[in-house]
Amino acid sequence: MTDPLRSEGRPAWSRRGFLLSAAALLAGPPIMVAGSAAAADLPGFPEGVDVYRSAYRNWVGEITADGLWACAPGDADQVVQVVNWAWQQGWTVRARGCSHGWSPLTIPAGTGADAPVLLVDTATRLTGLSLESTEPAAVRAGAGVTLEALLGFLEDHGLGLTATPAPGDLTLGGALAIDAHGTAVPADGESRLPGHTYGSLSNLVLSLTAVVWDADADAYVLRTYDRADADGAALLTHLGRALVTEVVLRVGVNTNLRCVSRVDIPAAELFAAPGGDGRTFASFLDESGRAEAIWFAFTEFPWLKVWSVAPTRPLTSRSVTAPYNYPFSDNIPTVVADLAGRMVSDAAWYLAPVLGTAQLTAATLGLTATLSADIWGPSKNTLLYIKPTTLRVTANGYAVLTSRAEVQRVVSEFTDFFRAQLAAYALRGSYPVNGQVEIRVTGLDDPSDVESSGARAPLLSALRPRADHPEWDTAVWLDVLTLPGTPDAEAFYRELERFLLSTYDGGFALARVEWSKGWGYTDDAAWTDTEVLGTEVPGTFDDGVGPDWGETAAVLERLDPHRVYDNTLLGRLFG
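Below the sequence we write its predicted structure tokens.
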């Protein structure tokens, strides 16, 4: 019988081959100690700071560079020395954590080894953690600490967060730079606990310390900003246009969460137009406040995760004492690896429907086989579920701000458009999406959540409230994932982006880009559409009250007038 994963005369891409390709991204940047070469190539570089040649790889491997200069400062004072050296030498500085991102906010594609760019590795030594206070609770954390380490530290002290991103291998500094988020809104009858927020991680910051320009000192210096500081508000989500070394976060008492997974609700019911009595996405938000839908391309039954606060273990739940409880997702199943490898190596993109079915089947069987369809434990153990060994795909991303009552409408309109476009492309023999749609819902960045006098909202957070729409209290996060290199993906993403920006243009809802993902599409590439970069993005932050985009950009320029923290994309965004 013919192997469906093998074309005549050409062997199928093996699972081992596909996983070895992924492993090249997991190994981390190779490091070569520079020794005397550093003195020759980097004259005057601060003594005592480890410096070396390093590779750079972003999450999916679409942005790579070999042989860049990098360093690992031992403390904030050494960071200051490095930044001042870079300014005096005409170099730029780019902070690097775990490189778990898609957009070229760190370096652009094509950056060569001879580029005057210095990577500052924060995850090596800027990783301090200490309890700042207990009543109310606050934690002091270095920018390089990972979210998994932070959540583990909090758990040990009886503390936690309402929601977090699913990967644990994000540095705190990187997460704050792009307003990282989880999925949570208050359930019916639920009140926010002190020290918690339904918004982004940036909304938990009480104070931050950054390396900024001081005109009086004629140098870059360390400066600490509290949450009421107007300049500090621009740094809470800075997109890499600044360098933060340390933050103090407001945190609250930890909770036990139950996470129930379901694959028995058809997409037509879960994403139905509002007004019906079915098992809709919004109905689960009303019930528990915390839900995520993962809808594999060309399938009919999404993987729905529903979290709920549960102080004691429900009888049907399995207690979990560690995160990452979906091994069938974190470790690529054989059939999924074979299919993905075949699609990439043989350009067999028509197998997208088969891959979608294989992923759904793996999830359905895996939930039962690993007893992970109903798990319970401290918040960290159910909120973190993505490891670096998962299937690496590219992604676009948007947040649609709206009122809680309109969430189902947004979900329904978006999924209807997605399904129709996917079908239209398939009729033409094109399969631009072979991953999944992911839908999450959060609150906005209400600065009163940190209970600090005069606190300001993060100015560049996608979750920043709009003064001209006080009824908007919710954001629907929409991501579409596909294997890198998939033909027609950019054109598909462009049509999807145009739909979002034109449909949610400030009437009952407003679409903003998700900084770490793909956006600004032409038919050929992301982050290149001049209208999106120059008009659409800035316009979504202009609510008539301010600070608007230009005023925020002016703050970042004043704090870094020499553009030490700059690159191609940031230059296009901020002028």
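Residues 350 and 426 are 9 Å apart (CA to CA).
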